[in-house]
Amino acid sequence: MSSLADEVSDLMREVAALEIMPRFRALKDGDVEEKSKGDYVTIADREAELWLTPRLAALVAGSHVLGEEAVAADRSRLSLIESDAPVWTVDPVDGTSNFIAGRETFGVMIALVRGGVTELAWIYLPASGELATAERGGGAWWTSGGKTVRLSTGHGPEDLRDIVGAFNTRFMPDEWRMRVEGLAGHVGREANDLCSAVDYTSVARGLKDIVTYHRMMPWDHVPGSLIVREAGGVVRDMANGADYVPRTLAGPHLVARDEKTWLRVSDATHRS
Fold first, then answer.
1. What structural domains does the chain harbor?
2. 96-131: per-residue pLDDT in tens?
């Protein structure tokens, strides 16, 4: 991995230590707001993004920062993902509801996109100190307990009844929601951590076989999609078979450990 990868990894650890972990299980009255129904933001989200934004922009000349909370304040900033200039996608605290509830399943996610192509990705899990990184064409890596190993998704089970998956259907059109929920009733185990940072890294590590999504905001999916792919997995639209790209904003997408698992599950979804 490049020196840039190390610099961003260090920034993620630092922002977690300064702005996120001191507020974990210590949120006060007024520290949490509801942006829209069921969509929450905390002071940790906002302060972490404000801390990261100028530091990331300074790392790559001419780059822009596309942060979740900045887009919440000004929707027009989402158009940055269409730029050919370097763009950083930032989710300062993914899994905010878990963070608010005191659950450890939350993460910081960053990616660097140039010309619509993801070049580098990072997912940091502050509660455990674990870090996933990926470089386009250079593999994906997992750092835990001071040791770094190459990530490999491995192969999913042959039988759908042995599949372990997370099924996010909240934003799906009724037709796809019914199909995916029908599929969920036939797999071995449903394991949804309600956190893209955890779900993507779980697939990359071979701990989960599949995840489904529909709303594809860049900060939620650009980092994890590169990490999963570089580990051997697949992220693809079930409706048209197209590979996910950063400029795609809607699904239905299926994340899978390998090609065979993607095809098997996608076929089952179309039959349900």
1. 3-150 (3.30.540.10), 160-271 (3.40.190.80)
2. 999 999 999 999 999 999 999 999 999 999 999 999
Q: Are 139 and 127 in contact (CB under 8 A)?
A: no
Q: What is the pLDDT of residue 272?
A: 62
Answer for the pair 111, 222: CB distance below 8 angstroms, yes or no. yes
Q: Which long-range contacts (CB under 8 A, 24 or more apart) does 11-15 make?
A: 11/52, 11/55, 11/56, 12/108, 12/110, 12/122, 12/124, 12/131, 13/124, 13/129, 13/131, 15/48, 15/51, 15/52, 15/92, 15/108
Instruction: Specify the pTM.
Output: 0.97
What's the token pair of residue 231?
């580990």
User: Cβ of 175: how many Cβ atoms within 10 Å?
Assistant: 10
